[in-house]
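INTERNAL AUDIT FORM
Audit reference: QA-55
Scope: verify that the stored structure record matches its stored sequence.
Auditor: D.O.
Record contents follow.
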Amino acid sequence: MATDEVLSLLVEFINKNSNVVDIQWDRRMSPRLLFNPYSESYEERKKIAHYFLLASSILDDTVVNYPENARMLLAYLHEVFGSSLFEVKKAHIFEEEIVKSDFYDDLGPNKKAASEVLASVNLFIRNKAERNLLKYAQGFTKPIDFVEDIAQNIPAFAGTHKDRAWIYMRWMVRSSPDLQIYDHLLPEDLYVPLTRENANVAASLGLINTASLSLWKDEKTANEARQKITDFAKRLFPQDPAKVDYPFFLLGRWLKQKNLNRYTLKTALDFLDRMQKITGQSQSYYQKMSRYKSGWEKKTALTLLKMHIPYGYETISFPLPNANEVYTPDFILEKTVQGRKIILEPHFEMTKKQARKYSLFKRTYGHKFLLILLLKNDLIPLYHQRKILTDDVCDDVWPIEFIHLLVERIRRGTYGQ
């Protein structure tokens, strides 16, 4: 496969998606932040710089599970404590509130570390930065010097965790859709963070040999990989290498659990480009618990999480032909069946209008997606009898009571066999 063809597609994808707002403050998501991240007020910008250092400090799969959960946790604590959030310096005070959250069990296996990490950030800002990160940042002329200082003072950013500080610097230094709080620092001096998603893209390009956990086995290995990704980004965007970071995040999630090579990368870029042209939306998707509208949706999400199956929830809306409406699937799974991504759609009740929408979707997008409806077991015969569940409505119907059996088959790759 021609290298320049893949590179051209990749650059086009970056340019199209470099204006996508980060999940940490995307207004399409709930919970909403309690402040305007783009505020021009000096006092507000002090809070913004502090708040997002807290957010970046817990961006660890073992702590929050998904990056979306960092946002959810900080928004929850901000609602609980108000401005006192920035003054809490004892871990047990954070812990007492975190364990009360209704999403506590959805955080990572090392969730208890969050309290200690957040308290350590507040201590750093009070004692070292004298409660003013804006003024403190003025003492650094290069982002790397600020990153090293943060790493030396806050253990959560040290060693192989330094990329959390580089994520923070991207938020704080780049202009919109990032926040450009530290506007005296230059985007050209930023490094591209070595995140799991960015490593997936880099490995697909052949920039690094693997995207496995061995990349983070020691600081030297992580530094070398980060440097290779940044050097590549600088060749594309010399004045703004971190421009690739969020598009790589979106793309790297799509590549998760796939064979990481140029063919897979091109296939992903082709597909995402087609979907963006159809929907007019970037293919960002969210993995979080706070947005579910019903108990059945939460049951589906919990089952997928328990089985470690990546998914997106209400991530994309598909225009339907001959109708002034769109269809937004509940769950799009990363797992595929014969090349088609799986959609799970849980319903307590079904109507003919909903069935018509699914039929239009299946007719238009069925070559790319496999639609499975999850319905109450004793209602399925009734819907067939009333001719609501006709053959053209979906690919399969599954009793919601037995979703764990369906998801287990999907996980094992035996669904449809």
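Auditor finding: record pair retrieved intact. The chain has two domains: 7-255, 295-412.
Action required: none
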